[in-house]
Amino acid sequence: MSSFSIFLALIIGVSFLLILVIMVQNPKGGGLSSSFGGDSQQIGGVKKTTDFLDKSTWVLASLLLILILLSNLTIDKGTENTDSKLLNPNDIESTIPEVLPDDIPLEIPVKE
Q1: Radius of gyration for the alpha carbons in the chain, expressed in angstroms and rounded
Q2: Would you tell me how many other CB atoms lie within 10 Å of the CB of residue 82?
Q3: Nearest-angstrom CA–CA distance, 76 and 2
Q4: What count of other Cβ atoms lies within 10 Å of the Cβ of residue 31?
Q5: From CA 6, how far away is CA 39, in angstroms rounded?
Q6: Contacts 24+ apart (CB under 8 A), 55-58
Q7: Are 14 and 68 in contact (CB under 8 A)?
Q8: Residues in the chain, pLDDT under 50
Q9: What φ, ψ does residue 74 adopt, rounded to 5°?
Q10: Contact 65, 55 (CB under 8 A)
Q11: At what angle do helices 47-73 and 3-24 cross, to 10 degrees?
Q12: Residue 88: per-residue pLDDT
């Protein structure tokens, strides 16, 4: 298994966790704490749920970004040269197609 495949599996896993954490949060700021009936002044327990979800969202998003950037380093570049032959001035003659075959005269007959 290549290292790119490992990074790809980690990216998919972190993306799935990030989706779950975002879906659990309430867009109005209540989140899980409002579903348990706790108010925002409660110490411990439910009050900490929104803090945990906020922090885990930032951590997972940062981890996802880092994994994506690191996976770019592990992509197999290969040894094949993919540059155009037109960019290499030494090979310019080999890229010019032969327009006329040898048996066609280059002079154009003129009607008088």
Answers
A1: 31
A2: 6
A3: 9
A4: 19
A5: 42
A6: 56/21, 57/18, 57/21, 57/22, 57/25
A7: no
A8: 40, 42
A9: -95, 0
A10: no
A11: 160
A12: 61
Instruction: Write the CB contacts of 74 (distance below 8 Å, at least 6 apart in sequence).
Output: 2, 3, 4, 7
- Phi, psi of 46, deg, nearest 5: -70, -35
Residue 36 is which amino acid? Answer: F
The two tokens of residue 74 are 């592990």
The pLDDT of residue 34: 54
Look up residue 20 and give its two tokens. 């779950």
pLDDT for 110:
72
| pTM exceeds 0.70 | no
Q: How many residues does the chain have?
A: 112
Give a three-class secondary structure readout of the chain.
CCHHHHHHHHHHHHHHHHHHHHHHCCCCCCHHHHHCCCCCCCCCCCHHHHHHHHHHHHHHHHHHHHHHHHHHHCCCCCCCCCCCHHHCHHHHHHHCCCCCCCCCCCCCCCCC
